[in-house]
């Protein structure tokens, strides 16, 4: 898998179009990043990969659970939406919808072991960071500071940034054979099947995936 895709943690290492490079600079500023990014491969951390498939081609496959739907991720999705002419990613509206749902927000907090429940999600990054600082604990690895994101909640911001790298990896000159990533979410399967994800049997899950691919491809 590593040899099939170039996926580095530092966006400066890619040969992206200028507007994509500018987008990442703006994203890091909005995510309160110091800009001190590590440079290492992320290719071994993707959820799945298809190579040379008849209809899917060569693509990164991602499955997003509760921890991916955060105010930080909403920021990155809003930036991606502004580049919709060169990044026609069909899953963006669904991801944004999940990021804006209070129920999804509370499930995300629980996933990060933050003991809080809100009636409505925070309207700004600063408001979210304050909530994490007040309700989180320093020994919580889910929210600990990370290089380039040196604050409590840094791991959450880092994940949003890394997700965005996967979203646009196909636009880099290093990935000429790569097509746009495919993302599936826990919530879409639950909504379509009417059950908690862990209660969905394999046959039903396969059917849901096939139906989703028919809509996307």
**What is the chain-wise order of helices and strands?**
HEEHHHHHEHH
Mean pLDDT: 91
Structural class: mainly alpha
* Beta-strand residue percentage: 5-15%
Report on the biggest sheet. Answer: 3 strands, mixed
- C-alpha-based Rg, rounded: 17 Å
Shape: globular
Name the helicity range: 40-55%
Ends distance: 22 Å
Low-confidence stretches: none
Integer count of domains: 1
Number of strands: 3
Number of helices: 8
- Give the neighbour order of strands across the main sheet: 1-2-3
Structural features, described:
The protein is built from eight helices and three strands. The chain has one domain. The mean pLDDT is 91. The chain starts with 17 loop residues before the first helix and ends with a helix. The longest helix is centred in the last third of the chain and has 15 residues. The radius of gyration is 17 Å and the shape is globular. Strands 1-2-3 form a three-stranded mixed beta sheet.
């Amino acid at each position: 898998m590593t040899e099939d895709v170039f996926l580095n943690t530092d966006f400066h290492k890619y040969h992206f179009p200028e507007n994509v490079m500018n987008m990442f600079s703006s994203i890091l500023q909005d995510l309160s990043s110091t800009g001190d990014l590590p440079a290492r491969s992320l290719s071994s951390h993707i959820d799945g990969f298809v190579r040379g498939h008849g209809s899917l081609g060569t693509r990164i496959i991602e499955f997003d659970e509760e921890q991916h739907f955060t105010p930080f991720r909403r920021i990155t999705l809003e930036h991606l939406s502004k580049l919709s002419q060169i990044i026609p990613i069909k899953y963006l509206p669904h991801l944004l919808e999940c990021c804006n749902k209070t129920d999804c927000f509370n499930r995300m907090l629980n996933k990060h072991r933050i003991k809080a429940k809100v009636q409505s999600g925070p309207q700004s990054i600063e408001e979210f960071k304050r909530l994490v600082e007040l309700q989180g604990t320093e020994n919580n690895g889910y929210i600990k500071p990370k290089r380039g994101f040196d604050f409590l909640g840094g791991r959450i911001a880092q994940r949003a940034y890394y997700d965005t790298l996967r979203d646009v990896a196909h636009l880099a000159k290093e990935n000429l054979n790569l097509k746009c990533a495919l993302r599936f979410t826990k919530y879409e399967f639950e909504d379509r099947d009417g059950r908690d994800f862990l209660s969905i049997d394999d046959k039903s899950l396969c059917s849901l995936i096939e139906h989703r691919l028919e809509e996307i491809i």
